[in-house]
Design a protein that fits this description.
By secondary structure, the protein is α/β, with parallel strands linked by helices. 37% of the residues lie in helices and 13% in strands. It folds into 2 domains: 204 residues, 3-Layer(aba) Sandwich (Rossmann fold); 201 residues, 3-Layer(aba) Sandwich (Rossmann fold). The protein is built from 16 helices and 13 strands. It binds pyridoxal-5'-phosphate and zinc ion. The site of zinc ion has 8 residues, from loops.
Amino acid sequence: MNWVCAACGTEIPVTAPLSWRCPAAGDDRRHVLHLRAEPVPLRGGDDPNPFIAFRRYLAWDCFAAGLGLDEEARTSLVRSLDDDVARTAGTGFRTTPYARHDGLSAALGFSGSGGVWVKDETHNVAGSHKARHLFTELLHLVALERTGRAPWRERPQLAIASCGNAAYAASTLARAVEWPISVFVPAAVDAALVEMIESVGGRVVRCPRRDGDGPGDPTVLRFREAVASGAVPFGVQGTENAWCLDGGRTIGWEIAHVEERMDAPPLDRVFVQVGGGAFSTDLAWGLFAGGLRPRVHAVQVSACAPLVRAWRIANETGGARNAGSRWERCMWPWEQVGGSIADGILDDETYDWVGACNAMADGDGWPVEVPEPVVVEAYRLAHAATDVDVSPTGSAGLAGLLAMRSEIGDDERVAVVFSGIRRSFTPEPVASGA
Ligand SMILES: Cc1ncc(COP(=O)(O)O)c(C=O)c1O
Ligand SMILES: [Zn+2]
């Protein structure tokens, strides 16, 4: 298994320590390491912990084996870290539910053979799918320490730029192993979110835009400065730490594992909400590795849709598949980010746009840009038709399905991921236009 840069083709083995970014990138963030592995049939174990059940498909497993840890040591390292996480978060990593939702399927007019399958991440560690991405970064760091290969005497701080679920998940995992973390958040951050991050020991750093800042998100600029002075990137952007792209695949593997045992035609489509793009990249990698080929529809909101723009330009300039060498033509920060209740996907850049475009190209899908009233309606419907306490960001994939429903056959099998739980400070679901 190798890391291969999706922009310049540079390869490094997954056994290389601290291999967060493309070695040829320098300060340029328009490089991203992707995993390349010989395709092997996915045989999920039945362990309730996905990092155990699918351990042998993780790049981390290869990495840890390279450090000399045998299978038993690798398994017990995952288990002991999971115990630490469970003590902090109240739950460790467990396979999350994936099932047809009859109420939602009926509400959307699907037939008995088609319908909407919901993967529910709201009870994952820290209330969203984000911790899955971060856990392989944590495993990487801890494996280095446990084998005496860590190049530090005193732990460098971890750093993340995020204003939502990723910040809370990262702080939660950091707390589980008592590792200091700085969380770079927007100046206008919600006080309740700050409280959540601080409740698990994250050091919150507010980041107003400074004179002289270039384009892009100031929280990301401050985060990069911290990393340049020695902090470990501990976020969910593949461009800053590719190891987030390892563990996020567990969601797709879990779905594939259930699908494989179902007496039903293959999944036709998946709608996935896209902010930074790591989630969609990994979901598709996981599904495809499990032999599924649904059409992948990346869902963005009209307030901020840089991936939709990149998809169009990539198609016009040579194709959307493996478009990483055309990075500067396809992806740059969205100029005027508007407001949306799906505030977790307002990243002005889709950092993992190459992976997201590949997912759509490989699955014969395309992106959907959803107007805000439909985002609001999806959130309302999710609460009216299911008992999942999903956030507006978490139900934004469903908004894509609503927007495209008339183009979808009643017998099609469609999946969405309710990727995050509603927080106390999230607006209540209301009828559209109310
Ligand atoms: C609940 C939820 N779903 C989806 C996403 C989007 O994931 P990504 O930023 O990897 O595209 C986020 C990101 O913040 C999120 O919090
Ligand atoms: Zn590169």
